[in-house]
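Open question from group meeting: does this chain pack into something compact, or does most of it stay loose? Before anyone orders reagents, we agreed to write out a predicted structure and look at it together. Recording both the input and the output here so the notebook holds the full record.
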Amino acid sequence: MWKIRFTALILLILGSLVGYFVFVSEKSDGRFAFKLGLDLSGGTHLAYKADVSEIEAAEVKDAMESLRDVIERRVNLFGVTEPIVQVERTAGIISESKEERLIVELPGVTNIDEAVAMIGATPVLEFRLERPDGPAKDKILNELEKFQETLKSGAEISQENIPNVDELFLSTGLTGRFLEKATLAFDSTTGAPRILLDFDDEGSTLFATITKNNVGKILAIYLDGVPISQPTIQQEIIGGRAEITGVFTPQEAKILVGRLNSGALPIPVELLGSQTIGSSLGADARSQGVKAGILGLLIIAIFMVLWYRLPGLVSVVALGIYTALMLAIFKLIPVTLTAAGVAGFILSIGMAVDANILIFERMKEELRTGKGLESAVKEGFARAWLSIRDSNISSMLTAVILFWFGSSIIEGFALVFGLGVLVSMFTAVSVSRTLLFAVSFESVPEGISKFLFGTGIK
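Structure tokens returned:
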């Protein structure tokens, strides 16, 4: 008996320490503060459409992951706390065409223009090769020659008559996606700034192939759709290094190098929509969620104590330990808490005592058959385990399916709910069992034991 009581004491002490950690960590330097989602902290939600028309279908997934990493790295440089950047693939309602989208959530940033500037400031770098000789190229050159003659004559020029010079160059597939780093250097003779571009292994191989097969042709370097350099390929370039010269002031070159190193967008993106959640609205949602959680705990605690008496009190203590453990897990993993996640946590509170109710009802059945109190408690836990196991497995499967197939909002709910189910299995079975067996059944008079282990308010 003393071993069980010692174990129960240890559990109570550990539960109290975990609860103390949760409380104190909120008052400290914020290292273990709760990580709140956009809907609870306020901020900006941006939805972008990625243009993957120039990318092979097999490479779209890698390109989108690269885009996500670049944007996340970019917004981190602006000091945004815990940005959420994720990729979504959407299918059209009418057609079967799919869109690659990037969802960006910036907690604490309530200025949409500022948020869009964070993303838009990241340059799109690409290399385009001179179009091969042929009718298409001749047509563009003729249009360009006529346009220049018109300029010299001083005649009026309409927008329709301006030739698209960009059509002289074709995409090579070499973009900022393959950029490893950019370095600022200066010409030893003229002092002019130079930007050195180093590609990764895949980019180096592609760059070497392009330069080997197109010696004598122009390889234009485009930044944000604007040609900034049009060098002629003199020979095959191995080693994966390109150079941009003669188009920047030192300050402009410095800024561009910083932006390229923070992430050159591998593919163009287009802003589809934006939404701002004010800090006051987020604070209100957070306050309402906390109130709902506290109210749910109180109602469950009152019901369990009034209906199941001593076992109910034990389940309330186990529920307190469960709540402390869950809040500590939220801080330590950390889990991004959204309004949906808070709802999942509140729901898991009810699930946490569900196992206790099954156990206590089994105990009542054993007591009605005339078994002793200690024997009824043991049988109650043993016979209820199969039902508890099956119900929790079903709940876990549901959480996994929701997390795997759901959107970001559903994922938050599923993650918190799944964690709650796992932790509740420990507190509802192990903790409740240990605390209940720590009570000395032999020393309790029969009349008192009937009241303590009875049911109802009578």
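Observations to bring back to the group:
The two ends are 32 Å apart (CA to CA).
The first helix runs from residue 2 to 27.
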